[in-house]
Amino acid sequence: MKAKELLDNYNLYITEGRVNILDIFLKSNVGLSEKDIQDRLSKKSDRATIYRTLKVFKETGIVHPVSAEGSATKYVLKKEPQEHLHFKCTKCRNISCLADIQISGYELPQGYKKIESNFLIIGICNECNN
Length: 130
Ligand SMILES: [Zn+2]
Ligand SMILES: [Zn+2]
Hints:
The structure is a single chain. This protein is α+β, with helices and mostly antiparallel strands. The chain has a single domain (3-123), classed as Winged helix-like DNA-binding domain superfamily/Winged helix DNA-binding domain (Arc Repressor Mutant, subunit A). It is 31% helix and 24% strand. A hairpin with a 5-residue loop joins strand 3 (84-89) and strand 4 (95-102). The mean pLDDT is 90. The chain binds zinc ion (ZN) (2 copies). Residues 89, 91-92, 94, 125, 127-128 line the site of one zinc ion (ZN).
């Protein structure tokens, strides 16, 4: 899937900034923070642009946020519509989606309203464990 197709699928205008940021997500298999994205952009973008783009991506569901204590919120391309487990490695500090492990069949008690979910496991990832 190319960045332009993806934007098109989500009915978003194709802009250079969006394509560049989406390209970075498409090349990464771990979650990226705002700063990770800024570091990887070849042409420097101001923080406000990155922030705005991420906000649009999040609202339309192209990416989903994963937050963990002690690190900035990371964003991951949403390949799975279903809720799934996430894993944070304490060595490389990467956060990744364990999209094959889906969460289903739970219901919140009455009166609770979900805003977002994380389902985070903390440990050592397979690469660091080698
Ligand atoms: Zn690791
Ligand atoms: Zn995920």
